[in-house]
Amino acid sequence: MSDLSSKLEPFLLLARSTKGAAAAKIIVDATAAPGVYAFSELLELPNIQELSTDPSYQNHYRLLQLFAYGTLTDYESNPSSYPSLSPTHILKLKHLTVVSLALQHRSLTYDQLLSALRLDTIRQLEDLIIDVIYAGLLGGKMHHHEKVLHIDWVSGRDLQEKDLCKTAETLLTTLDTRILELKQSSAQELARSNEYKIYRDREYQMISLELKSSKARQDPFGDRALGSGIGAGPAEFGPGGGGMSQNALLAAIAGGGGMGGASGRLWVCSNFLDRSMYKADRELVVD
Question: Nearest-CA neighbor of 60 among 48, 42, 69, 72?
Fold first, then answer.
């Protein structure tokens, strides 16, 4: 957009030193000049703003506003409010109308564009869209068979004060929505984490009970062994406890110790308890 604005510079230099009819002539020339699509700086000049209160040149000031903010529909709704427009003016106004539509929609059907631009054929429409793209006003792809223009990016147009407020409100609303989405996502992640922890602890307790029950059936001294091993709690599995951590135990059981199904789980647990019993028996002998 800065490149587009720079093309207005020669008209700005002239407008700073002219008034009345000369300033009105600058408006007519600038709005018809090739490559000039941004007009806010010209509108802000005191010499140009004076035309808005001059009955002889008010329509020229409205013409500049039309090319800064308006569309072809705005012109056609009241053409007598503006000076007579040349075909070059009308063509540029159509370009700006495409930009305005592209700012509102990511995809534009050919029917929408044909109606808004007052064109009769698809060939005329596609030629105009190509001109708009080459002018650097937007980027997109025309789909001839689908009869739709997909917008990739658009340069934008001059903004009125009311548009600035509306844009700021839209941005704030979008930001608030995004923050709310992130909060909800974080809460859902926390809930899933808590559910997993509950499931993990429940599975661990079930496996521990299964080990106790199996060992008790196989070993008459199971109470002593279990009291020294599994019954001692998770601390017995940690560093310095002479055994496996809780996570390592669950991983070994999930792997089955090289064996499949429930028998694999019990095989791993039996070997683990044998080591625990050996440790407990050795401590009793030492005592």
Answer: 48
